[in-house]
Structures are given as C-alpha cells and as structure tokens.
From TrEMBL:
The keyword Lyase applies. Pathway: Amino-acid biosynthesis; L-cysteine biosynthesis; L-cysteine from L-homocysteine and L-serine: step 2/2. The lineage of its organism: Eukaryota, Fungi, Fungi incertae sedis, Zoopagomycota, Kickxellomycotina. InterPro entries: Cys/Met-Metab_PyrdxlP-dep_enz (IPR000277), Cys_met_metab_PP (IPR054542), PyrdxlP-dep_Trfase (IPR015424), PyrdxlP-dep_Trfase_major (IPR015421). The keyword Amino-acid biosynthesis applies. One of its GO terms (biological process) is cysteine biosynthetic process via cystathionine. It comes from Coemansia brasiliensis. Its EC number is 4.4.1.1. This is cystathionine gamma-lyase.
Length: 278
C-alpha cells in the first residue's frame, strides 16, 4: 500500500511528497495569498495601483515603493510559493526577466551547465548576454545524467534544466541531477513552465530554484507576459529579492492581479484529457 502522501502524475509515475500538505492544490490556488481585504472585507484583494505608500511614522511602512513590493505582487508571490512548496516566491516582468535576474546572482568568471535542449530564449540569454558578462555555459545532453559529472569545472556554480523541454518535450531526471549537482556544490534551477506545479514540484525533488514563464500555463489566458521563481533557500532568496528590486524587471500590479486570477483555474485547466468515448 502506498503512503497517504503519495502523488501520481498523469505519466503514471508516483512519488512521495516531501511533506504532506494540509490543503489540496485547488484550495491553495484559490486561497493562498488571497486574504480578504482588511479595510473593506472584499474577498478578492483589490487592485492597488499606487506606486508609493504613506509611512505611518518615519520608516514605519508595510509597502514603500511599488518596484520593491506592492500588495498585488506579494499576494501572487505568496500563491506561487504555496503551489511550488516553497518558502519564497518572486514575480518578474517575463520568464526571460526571471532567467536574467537569476543568472545575475553569478559573478563574472562563473560557469553554468545547461541542458542542451533548453528553451530558445534561455539559450540566447546564456550564449549572447551572460557570456558577454563573463559567465560561460556548457550545453549538455542531460537525458543521460552521468554526462553531468564530466563537465563540472572548478568554477561551475549552477545547473539549469528544463523538463519537459519546450518545444521538443525531452525529459531530465530532476532528482538525479540534483544529487550529482549537490555533491559538487552546485545550485540546480528547474524551468517548470511546461508541467506547472500541478504535475511537478521540482523543489520536492531536490532543485534549489524553480522558475516559470507564467505567460504560459500559470496565467493561462494569453493576456499577461510574466515570469515567476520560488525557492526554500534563505540565502538565495535574499539575493534574488535584492536583484528583483535592483534590476527592477517587475510585473505591474494589474498583471499580478490577472495572473493570480488565472492561477485559480490551473487545476481545472491541467486535468487529463477526457476519454474519447464521452
Ligand atoms: C516562454 C518560455 C520562457 C520565456 O518566458 P517569457 O515569459 O516569454 O519571457 C522560458 N522558458 C520556457 C520553457 C518558456 O516556454
């Protein structure tokens, strides 16, 4: 008999969740980061367009300036963290901005290992932008994870994987990559855009950061360009939070509001295809 917290995805593979979760996916998608508005009781947090916030006394504020944080973004980030089983969630102005911000955590002279079949925009960023800032990438076929050990260098810092890949749907074993990467002291980033946290929570499998183009399934309505990230690592989270504000590639409150609304139907939109004899 399988343990109570065994989860089985549509590919028929099951795993034991890292910890049993109190609420189901749909409940979290609808309620996480969606506390009723304290001032009015509105059950849907209102759209907050203010760019700047009044201090109750000098230095005493909840929100300060909207690039740094704002109510709609922090609500969405709470929801993303809940769905990805993370302590920290982050939203950015696109999936590409998420990639750029995370890669900015690396110092010049660092080396990255990326799955060779990575999303075209990620490949372009690594090859044309990160490379010009002194971060070199090796693109490796990680369908066979044993290839990973051969390419680790002294200055390797990070392994970037995507599974399944867009658009060729090739798979990488997140747990196996994480184990090898961690032995070598590397961080593992997983682009989880194509499965969404409904089917796969990479942090439970050992990844250090999970990222998404929320433009795709998370928002799900083809009316927002956005990216998100989530992690349980305190030090990494504080670096990403610093860079989110310092680089400033942040989404608007309206986009956050829309994406959070989109999230509420993710579990319905991810349902397995209906049998053809219906
Ligand atoms: C679309 C996509 C991105 C880039 O996201 P944008 O929101 O378009 O910037 C990154 N990774 C994957 C897997 C994607 O499909």
């Amino acid at each position: 008999m399988s343990p109570a917290n065994t989860v089985t995805n549509t590919f028929g593979t099951s795993r034991v969740a890292a910890e049993p979760h109190q609420y189901g996916f749909g409940t979290l998608a609808i309620h996480a980061g969606a506390e009723a508005d304290a001032a009015t009781g509105a059950v849907i947090p209102p759209l907050s367009l203010s760019t700047t916030f009044k201090q109750r006394a000098v230095g005493d504020f909840v929100y300060e300036y909207s690039r740094s944080d704002n109510p709609n973004r922090s609500n969405l980030e709470t929801a993303i963290a809940a769905l990805e089983h993370a302590k920290y969630g982050f939203a950015f102005s696109s999936g590409s901005a998420t990639t750029a911000t995370i890669l900015n955590t690396l110092a010049p002279g660092s080396h990255v290992i990326s799955v060779n079949d990575v999303y075209g925009g990620t490949h372009r960023y690594l090859n044309k932008v990160a490379a010009s800032m002194g971060v070199e990438t090796s693109f490796v076929d990680l369908a066979d994870v044993s290839n990973l050990r051969d390419v680790v260098r002294e200055n390797t810092r990070l392994v970037w994987i995507e599974t399944p890949t867009n658009p060729t749907l090739r798979l990488v074993d997140i747990a196996a990559v994480s184990e090898i990467a961690h032995e070598a002291g590397l961080f593992v980033v997983v682009d989880n855009t194509f499965l969404s946290p409904y089917f796969q929570t990479p942090l439970d499998l050992g990844a250090d950061i999970v990222v998404h183009s929320a433009t795709k399934y998370l928002n799900g309505h083809s009316d927002v360009v956005m990216g998100v990230a989530a992690t349980n690592n305190d030090a990494l989270a504080s670096k990403v939070r610093f860079l989110q504000n310092a680089i400033g590639a942040v989404p608007s409150p309206f986009d956050c509001y829309q994406a959070q609304r989109g999230l509420k139907t993710l579990h319905l939109r991810m349902l397995a295809p209906i049998a053809t004899d219906h």
